[in-house]
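Session log. Operator J.P. requested a structure for one protein chain; no other inputs attached. Running the standard single-chain path with token output.
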Amino acid sequence: MHYGESTLTRYRWDLKTCFSDEVVLLINRILETQENLTTISLLTDGDCIVTRIKYAPCAINLAQLSKLQHLSWRGLKRYVDFESVRQFIAAHGAQLKTLHLDLIGWDTARLAWRQVFRRTADKHAILPQNFFAQCVLGLPLEEKSYTLLTALQRLTLSQVSFSPMEVQLTGALNVGQLQALQLINCPGTFRFLRQIVHSGMPLKLKLLELTFNPEKLNQITDESQDNITETVKAFLEAFSGLIDLYLMLPTVSWDGMCQSMLHHKSTLRRLITHGLWRTEVGFQQDGDLFGSPEFRPRISHDPGLEFLGISASISEMCTITVSTILFPHF
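Structure written below.
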């Protein structure tokens, strides 16, 4: 493939391919001639057989992209992948407006990072408590707020842990200025939300997604028991102005949650709620909120809603009358 020099402003590698040295070198050859790139999106397979057989030392040189403002990387796992992000943030983090990172699995990413760290670091080096916060973002352990990504407006994190750096990350991730925040199966999510509320910082969020399925996290501590209902309620009531709200949460009081959603009634246009119920053997299964007498009647009569999604059982859906389908009362 051939691109004219400095002709691209966006670049996507969404093939979910193995990140061998050959692939990285190919991408670097493209990027080094495209100094006007403002957006880059990568979808890679960090756990394929190629990277298990041979440790690939080549890193994508993101730091050379001095105009990059929007970075999305789903599937990063290799030590050098995190080095790529670290070097870019150190050089140009202050100009980043959108950041989307999906580690696929926090535990596997942490173990992969530690294996290389132990081989390359000084033998007396101490393992970080949170490698992403301390070594990728460069935050110290001292518990105070730090500024880092000062232009950030949209943040999506999947399988990225906040623990035990909630205080530092609140400032570093520019939470007070974010327009969109999406947290997907991130360990420490609810402690992070409590820290935001505790800080008292005003929020400007227009879009919020909280997805937390305990089955997707391999944790000793069961965060599904971490006072989720009161935490999310307090967070939703700490500000106003949401337009989009997407919630997928384990066993919570959706009745109480509904009151907090209605705190955004004047602006809310799109709402999706997905309940997870804990089975007798400890697994999570889809819950029926549509048939809940304590939830559906309250939220479905908001006249401002343009889109409403509620987790439901097939049997309950079959009881809906034709008139309800054709003429929904939103």
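Operator note: The CA atoms of residues 144 and 210 lie 25 Å apart.
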